Structure formats: C-alpha cells, structure tokens
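Schema walkthrough. Field components (list of strings):
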Amino acid sequence: MTIITASDPAHLSHRERSDRVSDPGEGSSSAALPVGNRKTTVGIARSNSRTEPGPVRFVIIVLALTFLTVFVVLPLVVVFAQAFSKGFIAYFAALAEPEAWSAIKLTLLVAAISVGLNLVFGVLAAWAIAKFDFSGKTFLITLIDLPFSVSPVIAGLVFVLLFGAQGYFGPWLQAHNINVLFAVPGIVLVTIFVTFPFVARALIPLMQEQGTQEEEAAISLGASGLQTFFRVTLPNIKWGLLYGVLLCNARAMGEFGAVSVVSGHIRGETNTMPLLVEILYNEYQFVSSFAIASLLAMLALITLVVKTVLERRLDEGQAPSDH
Amino acid sequence: MVRRILIVAAGLLWASSAFAADYSLLNVSYDPTRELYVDFNKAFAAAYQKETGKSVEIKQSHGGSGSQARAVIDGLQADVVTLALAYDIDAIAAKGLVATDWQKRLPLNASPYTSTIVFLVRKGNPKGIKDWDDLIKPGVAVITPNPKTSGGARWNYLAAWGYAQKKFGSADKAKKFVADLYQNVPVLDTGARGSTVTFVERGVGDVLLAWENEAFLAQREFGKDKFEIVSPPLSILAEPPVAIVDKVADNKGTRGVAEAYLKYWYSKEGQEIAARNSYRPRDPDIAKEYESSFAKVDLFTIDDVFGGWTKAQQEHFSEGGIFDQIYKN
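Field assembly_structure (string):
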C-alpha cells in the first residue's frame, strides 16, 4: 500500500496541490493563488482524506473551531464591544474628534499614494519578470521579496538613517527646508517600502502561468507593444491585480511599526489610525481607541469579503485557459 | 481611477492645511504630560492672542523622553522640547540644535514645574507598603519601566538609590538595595505610561513606582476606591526641563513666540495649571495655595546625590553601567 502511494506521482502532486488550494490563510504571498483545475483536485483530496474514523474527525473539527473562535472571532467581538461600550453616541463622537478625523484622512492619503505607486511598479515588475528572460531575474525577485523578510521597525530605521538629520540626505534636505522624515512624505515612503511586494507577488505566478502566447499572437497580428500590453496583458490579469491591490491596501492602512518610527507622533498631523489607537489607549480613552480600532477591523472584514469574491473570479477567469 | 485618487488626495491635503494660525509651534514632550499640555496650550494661546493679537497653534508630540530626544536629533522639527530629564536635552544640545547653556536661560534650572516619585498601591494597601524598604521584601511585585528607555524610570531608579545611600551611607549598600529592588520587578515596560497601564489595567504587581502626577491621574481616571497613593518620607526632586530648540526656532522664525510660550510657565497662570495637573509648582504663592494637594516629602536633588545628570547617566545607565550589572542576574 505504502509502496503504491509513494510511487504514484500523480496522486502525490494532486495532494500537494489540493493542500495549497484549500489553504485559507496566508493570503499575502504567492501561496494563495490557486493553481490548476480546482474541482478535480479538491474532489480527489476529499475522498482520500476521509479515511480517518468519525471521532478523530470530530475532535479535529472541534479543535479547529475552538482555535478559530479564541484567536479570531473573540478579539474581533471584543473590539466592537469596547467601541460601543458607552453607546452609539459616544462611538460616533469619538470618530468625529478632529484628531480622529486627521488620522483617518492621513491614513487614506498614505494608502492612496502608496497603493497607486505600488500598483504601477508591481505591474511593471511582474510583466518584466513573467514575460521576459534576462540575467539577474532571480536576484530581482529576491529584491522584491525583501520587504517581507525585513522587520518593519528596521525598515523605518533605515529611512531614519537615510533621511534623518544625521543621515545621508538629511542635511541637504534640511538646508533646502524639505521635510521628509516626521512628515507625510516619510510615512508614505516607509509604507511603500513595506507594501512593495504585494502587487508584484500576486501577479508573477499568474502571468507566468498565462505564458506569452496571447501576446505573441497579438504582435504577429500587428499590435504594437503598448497595444498588446493594454489590450491583452492587462485584461488577462485584472482580477489578480485587484487582489494584489487589495492586500497592499490592507497592509498600507494597518502598518504600525515602520510608520511609528518615522511619524514623530505629532498630534493631529502625523498620527495614522494604528498609531492613534495606541495613543488613545495609553490616555485611558478606551472608547475612542476602540472606535478607531473598529474602523480598522471593518477594513479587515471588507478586505476578507472582497478577497473571497476576487478569488472566485480568479478561478473562473482562469478556468478556460486551463483546457 | 488614478485621477480620481489624485483629486481626493489633493482635497485632503487642502483640507488639512486650511485653518492656519499666525504661528505654529511644535512641542515635543514626554509621556505623562499629555493632559498638562492640553490645558497649558489652550491657556497660552488665549493669553498670547490677547497680548499680541496673533493667533498661535501648538502641536504636541508625546513619547518616551529618550526616544523623543532621538527624534528631534533625527530632524523632528520641534520649536520647544519639554522632556523628562535634563540629560535628554543635553543630548540634543550635543548635536548643536540647542545652545549648551540652555539650562541657564530660564529660571530654576529651566524646570518650571517639578514632581517626585511616589508609590501607587491597590486599595487598602494589602502589602502594607509605606517606605522604600518595603519594596525589597520578598513577594512584593514592583512595577517600574526600563531606565534604558524611559526618563521616569531613571527618576525611579535614582530615587531608590538616593534613599538607600542616605540611609545606609555607602554606594555599595545602595547598589545592593537597588539590585534587590529590581529582583522584585516582573516586567520592564519601555515607558512610564506603559507601566501605568500594566499596573492599573492589566492588574500586574503590588506597587507602581510612578511620577506623582501620573499617580494622581491614574487615581482620577480609575477612582479612589481602586488605588491609593503612598508618598515615601524621602524621595527625589524630579525636575523636568524645558528648552527652545534654537536651530529649528530660528529657521522657522518662531523664536519670539517660543520664548513667550516657555516664559508663560513661570507666570501665576502657568504655575496654577501645573498645580491643577498635580505637578508641584515653583511659585511660592501657588505652592501655598495647593499645599494640601501634595504630601510633605523630603526631597533631595540629583545634583546633591549624583553630581548632575551627565554623571548619573554615565555611571548608572550607560552600556555596561551599574543598571546593566545589577539587572543581568
């Protein structure tokens, strides 16, 4: 029995694949993008995995659900319970505070700029990596992944070293009265850094899988490079792109560590929502703190829903090209 | 899509810069002064408007004293710094941002308000904590932040040291005492406010070493039925200093208003605001008026016992200093 399983590569690869497809978490990197024909793999995986006796399955399911409740559902409930602990009026009054407003505006602004720039960069990088061959490609992919492996605090400190008054560009910037650090540009810069890989990472596997045939066809029919890109490449990746943008946006709005290092914590000016949550909490203003936190939690929930929808679209969009 | 984002972004930028005052000051301060400067800034802006007809808007930044100093050194555009201890402003002065004689430019060591270190205990004082000696008893959990990162924690540490040195008469015995005390510390938070939250919110520990003003604030926020303040008979005179960041103020052209801002601290109104927020006022009249709010404590200064901040910092808190030696084991 064992020999048969081990020597059956088709079976093994199916298992591996189904593991990957059904992995619900870790949406951040490449792992979550579904590969291959989902229906068949899932079907085979199910019939194979139901060999365990009933009680074992029951225990595993209960364990998983308990885990999920304690670590995901409960904290979420607590955030909203605290936010509304003094009623709706207190909740909305907390959100209407000028300081809360300024944090919300700043967070939206920073997310808009950094997601916009990372969108352009991510598409270009993924396009270059997936559709062309050149030396140093692996190195480039590693570089794109770098922000994932660097601690956000370190990322922030790097920018302090670069743009701080004692850093490389700091003295020149100060001489010209340009504020980068402890102002909006610095916050935008670190946010771009930490959200750098999301779009590219979502697109590269997708574009690699799609190959270059459709582009080659377009060019052989007389389309120019730009026409090919906008009429063939871009429509093919639109769902994947949205997916990347969504994750990028969630991280951009939620980033704490790196932003904290370069923010300067000027009240009503350079505090983003995550920073303000901490500040208000430390000032014993629990309703206000959790009110802002609840906005961030809602962002997470919306992200999850849209992500699920997009993943379904991605599957559908991909299905024809599989056959 | 992109254009719409740009329009929204531009709109937000415009909205955030729409209400500009004649002057704008940035006051970079330490953690427990949040409530104090809310009051003080409002009073100063009104007084300044009345006197000069110019409006002034004061922005605040709060954090651990040491990290705030670091941020100013790295380019945070503070017009004034109001930090927990002189050493942190010295560090800024060492980089040429503040004149080195800054502590002589304003009266009373440039510390318009003072405080001291007291004990906050749970209702009924179940462990019977009355004096510093009670802190090293076995089974007493003491909450104090990390002196490496927190200004308040350094005052705590030096207060304990000063007490022991005065009582036992030698530095060796003081070192033993402080080492015993830190044996009783289960967690070192990075800032004074973090420690307060650990003690009052998470319910960790039997006694919190805290700024007097911080202890009063916690009591106000959570009720006298939950916490009691115990003032030891002997403690340290904590002098949180203020200074103009010359380089920034000159560059922004705000020196005049920044000077007025700091001088306002020494007025009766300023002193009253300090007293109302549980900082010990310097002005004798106001001090008398608020006499009943503050316990009688014998206060020694850092100059008396440690020969000034630079020396204390070097000996106790530098890399491999006495704190590193006693906290290792």
